[in-house]
Here is the input.
Amino acid sequence: MNNASNGKYAAEAHDLNIYYGSFQAARDINLLIERQKITALIGPSGCGKSTVLRAFNRMNDLIPSARTTGDVHFHGKNIYDRDVDAVEVRRRVGMVFQKPNPFPKSIYENIAWGARVNGFKGNVDDLVEESLRGAALWDEVKDKLRQSGYSLSGGQQQRLCIARAIAIKPDIILMDEPCSALDPIATLRIEELMKALTRQYTIIIVTHNMQQAARVSDYTAFFTVKDDRTGYLEEFGATKEMFTSPQSQVTEDYITGRFG
Here is the structure.
């Protein structure tokens, strides 16, 4: 139970099953998320990878029909225990979505508002600068902090969302296809940023892009679908090993583009 707090693992999923009503979206998922590494979740559409990602900060709870069994250990505690505050879990496990979603506020307030809501009592100016520097955005926006977050390009908006996530000092950052709406140059900036962020944070990313998974991640979890459309974990391991010598024929077929 306490493995997640002993240094190596930031979080652990054990026998995780996720349902939407009577439909089972993911079955018997076991994952160890190593601290300050990037773990990529890959697989064909509908295999449950985004559902599993959202299980790490209880975002699925926001869907009325969703139900989760099994454990996700974080700091030695199962986040699905009844005495755990889901809002606090989401503060400690941040989320960056597929489409950039800045608040309809200034660049400055995108950072400051979220931090204040989460109880930040320090120097807000310093926090805004620190967070924007952490997201490699400060030099581009420092002279226009009062402008709307919507005034930024798509790639800049996504980095603003990453800055907003790190402003509340999470332990883990979840990213659900954070580059799918971006051009190749903006994608490269986000990938470079992800690598830099692992000096302080653990990152779990869902991506459809095999090249991206190979470029940025340390570990890869490959999900696929059974006949009943339920997602399951086919293979999990070090990215370099999975992409050069996958253990499963299904994994090899997907990585080489034979299906998916």
Q: What stands out?
A: The chain has one domain: 3-101+172-255. Residues 1-5 have pLDDT under 50 and may be disordered. The beta strands are 9-20, 23-34, 38-42, 66-74, 77-78, 93-96, 172-176, 202-206, 219-225, 231-238. The domain at 3-101+172-255 is CATH 3.40.50.300 (Rossmann fold).
